[in-house]
Amino acid sequence: MGFHSKPTTFVGHVNIKVENLERSLQYYQEVIGFDILEKTSSTAKLTTDGKTSILSLEQPEDVVPKQGRTTGLYHFAILLPEKKDLANIVVHLVNKGIRFGSSDHLVSEALYLHDPDGNEIEIYIDRDPSEWTWNGEEVAMAVDPLDFERLLKNVEPGKSWEGMPEGTLMGHIHLHVSELVETEDFYVKGLGFDIVNRFGSQALFLSTGKYHHHIGVNTWNGKGAPKPPENSVGMESYTLVLPSEEAVKKTVGNLRTIGASVTEEDGRLLTYDPSGNRIELAV
């Protein structure tokens, strides 16, 4: 649909921190259905197509468990290509005895579950954009019950679970932040996103290219929530993929204009939102 390709700016990759890499790898391979693309003693890049990584895991030194009531990862969201893929993974999760939540968001149908460290994962499919309802610049979203009876009609009979399909993408990311005023300026004026939904005074949903959202931010962990320790389980960073080097230069200029820092570290171009969430800028 073009929401995760040029000229759209989108989330292409998420890097999360875990307590035990081997335990997490077992989960992400056997339960979620990723393959390993690269691995070291403390890191792993995961793939669904054998060529590109959309999710990485790392085990920090002196790692501590996930901290409550802090900023950082709310969930990362894995986007499947087709409705049958979501139906198939429902059957797979049930067969493995994995507990999960679910929701119909009007624009999408989603499952929710947690990895062994408490990092939340959304697995979803989009409805066709022709079915989305726009009220001016805002898209209608909800948290309705998922119709499993209708969804499971799409299960492929006689086909066993074979892991995540090749066309799987990192669909969006949702973050805990400490406040929304400076956060809105950062993502809109700095990174060039549009507000596409305001969830009361507690959450914003942002996108480019009229997607329902590439990024969500909320204050549900409390206004003024602190940043977690660097060695805590949670998100290390996420990567924003911009359409060109020129777009990166323009974005860096916009970020610096609003007072945000942009640094180069180990070949990575990094910035931080007002709550300390680390973002890598890439092409």
UniProtKB/TrEMBL annotation:
<feature type="domain" description="VOC">
    <location>
        <begin position="169"/>
        <end position="283"/>
    </location>
</feature>
<dbReference type="InterPro" id="IPR029068">
    <property type="entry name" value="Glyas_Bleomycin-R_OHBP_Dase"/>
</dbReference>
<dbReference type="InterPro" id="IPR037523">
    <property type="entry name" value="VOC_core"/>
</dbReference>
<protein>
    <submittedName>
        <fullName>VOC family protein</fullName>
    </submittedName>
</protein>
<dbReference type="Pfam" id="PF00903">
    <property type="entry name" value="Glyoxalase"/>
</dbReference>
<dbReference type="InterPro" id="IPR004360">
    <property type="entry name" value="Glyas_Fos-R_dOase_dom"/>
</dbReference>
<feature type="domain" description="VOC">
    <location>
        <begin position="10"/>
        <end position="126"/>
    </location>
</feature>
